[in-house]
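User: Fold this; tokens only.

Assistant: Input:
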Amino acid sequence: MATDKTRIQRHLKTFNFKTLFVEELGWDNLKELPFFITFDEQTYTLHPLVEKRGVKVYICDPDNKGKIPDDPTLRKIEREVTRHAYEHILIYIDAAKENQTWQWVKREPGKPLAPRYNKLHKQQSGEPLAQKLQRLNFDISEEAYLSTTEVASRVSKALDVERVTKKFYDRFKVEHAAFLTFRRDPAQPPIKKRHHRRSTG
């Protein structure tokens, strides 16, 4: 069943993540207890939200100032969450419920971890993130054969922003190079057409 992007945007803007995942995207409730991560005398609470075949989603409370932690702290939190669930998505929110940051980390053998972030303020439409989340929809007809690998792959395709951007940029370079090949050098004089006189003899 196709998802409704407008409803996804509405759930994002109202921070209604449970309804977003369960009712719109077909994920399952994650029946775990909250757990805590402490850095530099600051404790962060991770609330289990949903899961699909072992790929889990957690919501992280703001810091003691009511803010979303800075990027270095987000990386530390993510590494600790990996102990609970190797494949996961983290959603960070501020106390005022004005900002949210979605974090997913790309892992490739022999390469450094590559965090991907999607940040949204309540005044923004949320359309770009909603378009990505549409890819995370799972229909009931898929349940019989769905695996962790399939879910993780779909999450990767949806949230690996840099991969999509790089693909577009590489294609642009190829097409731009082709354009330059056929473009006439402006320094060269225009080619004059030769008119051949027909023989009358």
